[in-house]
Amino acid sequence: MSAGFPPLLTGFLGTVGLAFIIGLELHAYRRRDTGALLPEALGFGTTRTVTLLAALGFILWSIAPVVPFCVGLGVLGLMLLLDYRKRLKGGDTSLLPTVVGLLAYSLGPVVLQMPLAVLAAFVILILFALGEQAQIRRLSDAFPAREGVTLAKFFILAGIIYPLLPNAAIPYLAGITYTKVWMAVLVISGISYFGYLMHRYVFPRAGTLLTGVLGGLYSSTAATVVLARALRAAPADATFVPAAVIIATAMMYIRLFCVILLLGHQDAALALALPFGVLCLVSFAIGGILAWRVRGAASAAHSTVSPNPLDLPVALLFALLFVVFAALTNAVTARFGAAGLHVLSFVVGFSDIDPFILSLLDGKFQVGASAIVGAVLIASASNNLLKAVYALSFSRSRAMLPAATWLALSMLLSLGYVLLLL
């Protein structure tokens, strides 16, 4: 629109134009849904009706935002109810045209009151609901009931438990609050759940390399175990496994960096960007070389790497480990300083390093920032050593030697970088 147009006229033309597009999509939807060839056989839902409803809503809102608009909404709702009863007698049970009619009437106030991003999302939602009918129906039919329970668990974690927690420090753990602990749970659970959904529903029979990528989003250690077992069970069909194990570790660095950044530890993320970035890129490069060397070989499909990561006991265990590691770190640093912290980091690397790393970054311990960054690197390094052992022991194959060698070498490189920081 031209800058010289009056704002009210601009809003009116925008409302009418968007309503016309929605009307076209609704008309197409009604034709697909009923199979009617004549417009009059479609009942409510023509392009003209939707456009005029939007214009009426805009005018009444402009006259007075409350009484005229609400009266019009009530009258329209009654008329749409009568139309729906008529369609029910004819066997048409769809409520979508009725809902779109009410939304079209409300389009004017959205144009006048809401930011452009909200307006765009509002219109896109309507068009998507009308235009992707078949895809949405297929998704609904394929959506397992257990995933609805999983989403409910996430809403419990994020919408019920988190708001109830006090933003107060946990006793004897300076800098660590109840909300920080639970926010870490939410971020880790969210990233893990994303990897789980991608592997289970988008790529349910993922090839070996993709298993490494998606498995690394959840747990590179779990992915290593699953891939190593696959190599042992069917060596001829799992030639890409060594490359996938290295790729899973590369994804670990990406996941850790994203988690650290999302939780607001920008200084730590900046300090870790160089070592994590180099190790990640080299891991991808070595994984790519190993995959190129066996190109053309069979690549077996693999089932989901991990169980559903949003079980409430898992979230509670993560929160408990977060607090335990924070308390342990506080005791070790108070007594032994940075040297004790680095020894603790190496030991913790043989377990779940996520709660340890996040508790380390959130707390206020008696060591400097470089010692904390070094501890993060040491924990990830010893975790790579653990994966090297798992890769060889679970696969029992010489083919896994290149992957195990790089994992062990990456540990040494990480420890060497830590020595440079000291």
Strand content: under 5%
The rounded Rg comes to 29 Å
Secondary-structure-based class equals mainly alpha
User: Which descriptor suits the 3D outline?
Assistant: elongated
Instruction: Estimate the helix proportion, in percent.
Output: over 70%
Show unreliable segments.
37-41
Largest sheet: none
* Helix and strand element order: HHHHHHHHHHHHHHHHH
Task: Determine the mean pLDDT.
Answer: 82
Total helices: the number is 17
How many domains? The number is 2
Strands, count: 0
Search tags:
mainly alpha, 422 residues, single chain, elongated
Describe what is shown at a glance.
By secondary structure, the chain is mainly α. The chain contains 17 helices and no strands.
